[in-house]
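ok, trying the design again with the full structure, not the truncated one.
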C-alpha cells in the first residue's frame, strides 16, 4: 500500500508557519493584502475564491474581494487591475480563471504588475521560471514540489513524467522538476504510447483533466504519483486524473483527491502573497 501524501495536513502546517511569519512582518510594519477578482458566476471558481479568502483569514492577512458580473468588459476589468496595481495596501492580485469568453485572459494577465502577480502567470514571471531565478513559483506546481519533498524522494536523477502541458500546470511543473535535476518528459494529447512513457516514471504527475485517466497498469511499481486533477463526477463526488484504487497498490506514495494537491495550491498562494508584500514594501 502506498504512503498517502496528505496535502491537507502539509498545507495546514505551512499555513501555521505563514501565520507566524505574518505576525513578524506586521511587527516590521508590513501589512500583506491579497486582492481576488472573480468575473461571472462559475460555481467551481466561487468555491476556489471562498477558500482563498478563508486562507487569508487564517494566516491573518487582508483580503479584498471583487465579485464582478459576467457582463463586465475587458476594459473595465483592466481598469480595476490598474487601480489595484497602484494601491499600496494590495500586495498580490489574482484574477480567477477561466474568464468569460469576451475577455482575453492574456490581456488581463499582462495587465497585472509582475511584482503583484501571485499566480506567476505574467510573461515576466514565466520567463523567470524558465531561468530558475524567480520571485513567484506558480502555486499548483509549487504545491506539488512540497508534496514530493514530503514523500522523501530526491528528484535529482529521477525519471519524471508530466502528463499535461498547460501554461498553468504542466509546463511550469516540468521546469521546477528540471531545476531540481529531474530527467523530465512532458506528455500531451498527441503523445504516442503514453503508457510506455508513464511506466518509466519514478515521479509521475497527472494534470490532464480527465477523470481517472491514469490507471494502475500505467504506473511503475514504487513510483511517486501526484494527481493534480480535480474532476467533479457527481454533485458531491470529486475524483482526480488517476484511478486511485488501482494506482495506490503499486505506487510508493500517492496524493488523494480531494485532500492532495488542492489545499497545497492555496498554501502556496499565501506564501506568494507574503513574498509580494516583501517585494512591494515601501518602508
Ligand atoms: P488543461 O485542459 O489546460 O490541460 C490539459 C492537458 O492534458 C493538455 O496539455 C492536454 O494536451 C493533456 N491531455 C488531454 N487529453 C490527453 C490525453 N488523452 N493524453 C495525454 N494528455 C492529454 O488543464 P489544466 O492543466 O489547467 O488542469 C489539469 C487538471 O488539473 C484539471 O483536472 C484541473 O481541474 C486540475 N487543476 C487542479 C489544480 C489544483 O489546485 N489541484 C489547479 C489547476 C488545475 P494538449 O495540450 O495536447 O491538448
Amino acid at each position: 500500500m502506498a504512503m498517502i501524501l496528505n496535502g491537507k495536513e502539509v498545507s495546514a502546517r505551512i499555513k501555521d508557519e505563514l501565520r507566524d511569519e505574518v505576525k513578524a512582518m506586521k511587527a516590521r510594519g508590513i501589512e500583506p493584502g491579497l486582492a481576488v477578482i472573480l468575473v461571472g458566476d462559475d460555481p467551481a471558481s466561487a468555491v476556489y475564491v471562498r477558500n482563498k479568502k478563508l486562507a487569508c483569514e487564517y494566516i491573518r492577512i487582508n483580503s479584498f474581494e471583487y465579485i464582478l458580473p459576467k457582463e463586465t468588459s475587458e476594459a473595465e476589468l483592466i481598469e480595476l487591475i490598474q487601480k489595484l496595481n497602484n494601491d499600496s495596501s494590495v500586495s498580490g492580485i489574482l484574477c480567477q480563471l477561466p474568464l468569460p469568453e469576451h475577455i482575453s485572459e492574456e490581456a488581463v494577465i499582462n495587465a497585472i504588475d509582475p511584482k503583484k502577480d501571485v499566480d506567476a502567470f505574467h510573461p515576466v514571471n514565466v520567463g523567470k521560471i524558465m531561468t530558475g531565478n524567480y520571485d513567484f513559483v506558480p502555486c499548483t506546481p509549487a504545491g506539488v514540489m512540497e508534496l514530493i519533498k514530503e514523500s522523501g524522494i530526491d528528484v535529482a536523477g529521477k525519471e519524471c513524467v508530466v502528463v499535461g502541458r498547460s501554461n498553468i500546470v504542466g509546463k511550469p511543473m516540468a521546469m521546477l522538476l528540471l531545476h531540481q535535476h529531474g530527467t523530465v518528459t512532458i506528455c500531451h494529447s498527441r503523445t504516442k504510447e503514453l503508457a510506455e512513457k508513464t511506466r518509466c516514471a519514478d515521479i509521475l504527475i497527472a494534470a490532464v483533466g480527465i477523470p481517472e485517466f491514469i490507471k494502475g497498469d500505467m504506473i511503475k511499481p514504487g513510483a511517486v504519483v501526484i494527481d493534480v486533477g480535480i474532476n467533479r463526477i457527481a454533485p458531491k463526488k470529486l475524483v482526480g486524473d488517476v484511478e486511485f484504487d488501482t494506482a495506490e497498490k503499486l505506487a510508493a506514495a500517492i496524493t488523494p483527491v480531494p485532500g492532495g494537491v488542492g489545499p497545497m495550491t492555496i498554501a502556496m498562494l499565501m506564501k506568494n502573497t507574503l513574498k509580494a508584500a516583501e517585494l512591494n514594501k515601501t518602508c
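Keeping the full-length input from now on. Residues 140, 163-166, 168-170, 187-191, 194, 207-210, 228-231, 241, 261-262, 265 surround NDP (CB under 6 Å).
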